[in-house]
From TrEMBL:
Molecular function terms from GO: sterol binding
Skewed-composition ranges (Basic and acidic residues): 10-27
Name of the protein described by the UniProt record: Oxysterol-binding protein
Gene3D superfamilies: 1.10.287.2720, 2.40.160.120, 3.30.70.3490
Sorted UniProt keywords: Lipid transport, Lipid-binding, Transport
Cellular component terms (Gene Ontology): cortical endoplasmic reticulum; cytosol; membrane
Pfam family of the protein (one): Oxysterol_BP
Upper taxonomic lineage: Eukaryota, Fungi, Dikarya, Ascomycota, Pezizomycotina
Segments for region (Disordered): 1-38, 338-360, 413-582
Length: 582
């Protein structure tokens, strides 16, 4: 029997699809979310854990606010509307093509589960891959990895080879506690490219940023979800910019989920179009020159296309759906005690891994992404904000060749098997190794003990590279997977964890690296899983802000001024109210 997280979410997604039409009606009533009955008990859940001398940084949030997927998977919302995605590169007029990009950008925000839900925080080295089967019998491919934990950074790559579309991005969410609200400040950047357009290397480039996310009423009152602040879509080559404001509800007026903005020519300063509407409903675009206003995108009737992923049995223990399967099952079954326990196991393992790397003086490096080379004349010139980019040479305009290269990075489609040629990690492009460093990374005979570790940069072992394997484009330095990764074996977890990993296709004639007890310790000896009350279900930034609060005083003291935010266009101060005061 094959396990699938998608099957667990089937009912939730059906509700989510239905709620799109409800959102527009709810927005008129200033209530855009479907609130679960338990969500009114967030404050009581927190207070129940408070004891004299309690460490507030260890207070847990209830698991009913968790979405049944990782942030790495949630990012795919932006690619879930092929009807807005695929036609873009074929539009000849640059202004019309830019408008199509804005439409694509705005089409993914309505995709969310009912209520106020927070995706699972990816652990360091977590990987998620997926694909889409398009109506024209082509495919889109997505690869992502958690490239940093402190601060959190989720790096991702997407391509639709036959349609000349490529996306590179890194998301850097930062949590902030605002009294009765929590904010996820969505820092980071994405680069969308049309490889069949433009004069620059790599194709015509579009720069995308994201709005911030707010959860209102997390301590008292009704919980609500909002997007807020400004985001930008910009095409430097064509001198076009869209400044889009996701509006939070005002103190006495306004509505939820509203957007506004304009598209202008950066060279002349001329405003070409105005944007308005609801990101959860119908959005409009007005041609300033003609005064004509029409629908840009209608989320009310839109049907998104969720991605497809390999079966759980084919996934590595550090891939999102397999990693979080016990937690997701418990959340789906509304078994919050089990969900908290399973989540704590994973988080405690991550802390133990970080501790052991520190003890062994080892720097962790991603498996599938490398540092960008952003200097003058470098491959990613001017893209230093991206920080990480897929670690593969994908410079080809041939769709078939590009597809083969993408599939050689990591398994994406069902049935892909590890390749012996790609089973070892590849050195980062940004690292220059001396002969002495290369010798340090060379494989050791099984009988030879591992040398004491120097301060070094290591990558996770590419244990699941796929077939067919692309010819190596650079020298590969083979490294013993377990020694170099220095990761706890997730297959030593308790029986309540995900299904065991299937046997890997390992070359029986290859020398196996020695297992060093200082680097690979069974879980039962290396760490003790803390009980649920000792695990933090909040982001570290959020926990830090909570720990500074004086919980012995009223959460909203009498006479406190409402939260305000200055509009970046008009410099006027907007005041918005938490849901508790509706």
């Amino acid at each position: 029997m094959k396990h699938s997280i998608g099957a667990l979410r089937h009912r939730s997604e059906s509700k989510g699809s239905r709620s799109s039409s409800d959102d527009i009606r709810d927005a008129d009533n200033e209530d855009t979310t479907v609130v679960e009955p338990e969500q009114g008990n967030v404050l009581s859940h927190i207070i129940s854990q408070l004891r004299p001398g309690a460490d507030l940084s260890r207070v847990t949030l209830p698991t009913f606010i968790l979405e049944e997927r990782s942030m790495l998977e949630r990012i795919t919302n932006f690619m879930a509307h092929p009807d807005t995605l695929l036609p873009m590169p074929d539009i000849d007029d640059p202004v019309e093509r830019f408008v199509a990009v804005v439409k694509f950008y705005l089409s993914g925000w309505h995709i969310k589960p009912p209520g106020v839900k927070k995706p699972l925080n990816p652990i360091l080295g977590e990987i998620f891959t997926c694909y889409w089967d398009y109506p024209d019998h082509t495919r889109g491919y997505y690869i992502s990895e958690q490239t940093s934990h402190h601060p959190p950074k989720s790096s991702y790559f997407f391509a639709a080879p036959e349609h000349h579309i490529r996306v590179d991005g890194t998301l850097k969410p930062r949590s902030k506690f605002l009294g009765n609200s929590a904010a996820s400040l969505m820092e980071g950047i994405s680069y969308l490219r049309f490889t069949n357009r433009g004069k620059q290397r790599g194709g015509e480039k579009y720069i995308l940023t994201q709005p911030n996310m707010y959860a209102r009423g997390i301590l008292f009152g009704k919980m609500k979800y909002e997007l807020g602040d400004h985001s930008v879509v910009r095409c430097p080559e064509n001198h076009l910019t869209a400044d889009i404001e996701f509006k939070t509800k005002g103190w006495v007026s306004g509505t939820y989920n509203a957007i506004g903005g304009a598209i202008k020519n950066d060279k002349t300063g001329e405003v070409l179009y105005e944007l308005s509407g609801l990101w959860s409903g119908e959005m409009f675009i007005k041609d300033v020159r003609t005064g004509q206003k029409k629908t840009l995108f209608d989320a009310t009737h839109a049907k998104h296309a969720p991605p497809k992923a390999r079966p759980i049995e084919e996934q590595d223990e550090r891939e999102s759906q397999r990693l979080w399967l016990p937690t997701v099952r418990a959340v789906h079954a509304v078994d919050h005690d089990t969900a908290t326990t399973e989540k704590a196991k994973i988080e405690d393992r991550q802390r133990e891994e970080a501790k052991r790397r520190e003890e062994m003086n080892i720097d962790w490096q991603p498996k599938l992404f490398r540092r960008v080379q952003a200097g003058h004349g470098a491959p990613e010139e001017g893209e230093e904000d991206l920080e990480w980019i897929i670690n593969a040479n994908l410079d080809t305009n041939d769709p078939k060749e590009l597809t083969d290269k993408i599939l050689s990075i990591y398994p994406i489609v069902p049935g892909q098997k590890p390749s012996s040629e790609q089973a070892e990690s590849k050195p980062s492009h940004t690292q220059q190794q001396t002969p002495q460093q290369s010798a340090q990374h060379a494989p050791q005979p099984a009988s030879q003990p591992a040398a004491p570790p120097a301060r070094q940069q290591v990558q996770q072992s590419a244990q699941h590279a796929p077939q067919p394997a692309a010819p190596p484009t650079r020298q590969q330095v083979q490294q013993p997977p377990r020694q170099q990764a220095n990761l706890i074996d997730f297959d030593s977890r308790p029986s309540s964890a995900a299904p065991p990993e299937p046997a890997r296709n390992v070359n029986p004639g290859a020398a196996q690296p020695a297992q060093s007890s200082s680097q690979q310790v069974p879980l039962s000896q290396s760490t003790t899983v803390n009980p649920p009350k000792g695990s933090s279900l909040m982001d570290d930034d959020l926990s830090h802000d909570m720990s500074k609060m004086n919980m012995h005083t009223a959460m909203v003291p009498q006479g406190q001024k409402p939260l305000k935010r200055a509009d970046t266009d008009t410099n006027e101060v907007d005041t918005f109210v938490d849901a508790a005061e509706d």
